[in-house]
Each structure stands twice: as structure tokens, then as C-alpha cells.
Amino acid sequence: MNETTREDAVLVLLDVAARIERRLDNALSMTRGISFSEYRLLKALAGAGTRGVMRVDLAEAVGLTASAVTRALRPLEKIGVVATEKHERDARCSLATLTPAGAELLSDAERVVADGLDAIPMKGLSLERLVALQAELAKPRQAPARRGMIRAHRDPTSGQEGAS
């Protein structure tokens, strides 16, 4: 795949993901009063069981920063679907758990998401290939290759040109 085709493929993939997220977000907000991001947080909390999840781990699970998770959990705490146990020194290490009301909301929201997914044409997409791509993207990044480009720059202190 050449560079232009690869870039086009990524842009299409991102557009598809954004459109799916918007559809699910609209359906959830209209019927259950939560966003798709909040749904993902509830889903991740449910997967942790009663032991709870540190906010940094929750952030990793849903692709947000720890501070974004902290901000996103506040309204969920206010409506009683999430409980948090504060860490004495670091808010990112606070444990969040799903309450019984949260489990009920999640169950309702899962049906909304399932209905929304039924309306999305996914023929020809392979879950295995998408999961493989996800796993590949989750690996630590290596320094990008420098595509043979060497730029000349002028060292401001010496006035001489060099390569970078």
C-alpha cells in the first residue's frame, strides 16, 4: 500500500469510527441520558467487578487521559451509577466501581447499543482483522524512520551549516 493510499485508509477508518460513535452517542443520550464515552467507562468498570479500577487503568482501557476520566466520572458519581474510593495522595489512583444502579443503567444501555449496531452495515468487516490492528497499535511505538530526508540547518552559535 503506498503512502497516499495508507493515509486515505486511515482517514476513512477514523471517519467511520467517528460516525459510529456519533450514532451510538445520540441513541444513548436520547434514551438513557449518557454519552457513548460514559457507556464505555461503565462497561470497563463492569468488567472489573467489585474490586474497582484505578483511574489510570480505566483511562488506558477507554483511551482517555486519567484527568479526562476523573472529569467524566464526576457526573456519573453525582447520579449514583459510579462510586469512587479516594486515594489519599493521587486522584489517578482512586478506585472507581460500578454501583447496582450503574449495573442496571449499563444493562439498559447495552440494549440501546446493540440496537444501534444492528443498524450499522458491517458486512465484510472481520473482527479478527480489526482486533489484530488494535493489538498492533497497542504495542509501544518505535522511533519513526527518517525517510531519507536530511535537512540542512544553520547552527546559530557558529553560523555553520550542518545536517540534522
Automatic annotation (TrEMBL):
- What Gene Ontology terms for biological process does this UniProt record contain? response to stress
Task: Report domain HTH marR-type positions.
Answer: 6-142
Quote the Gene3D superfamilies the UniProt record gives: Winged helix-like DNA-binding domain superfamily/Winged helix DNA-binding domain
Family annotation (InterPro entries): HTH_MarR-typ, MarR/SlyA-like, WH-like_DNA-bd_sf, WH_DNA-bd_sf
Q: Its Gene Ontology molecular function terms?
A: DNA-binding transcription factor activity
Identify the stretch(es) annotated as Disordered: 142-164
Family annotation (Pfam families): MarR
Please state what the protein is called: HTH marR-type domain-containing protein
| Source species | Methyloceanibacter methanicus
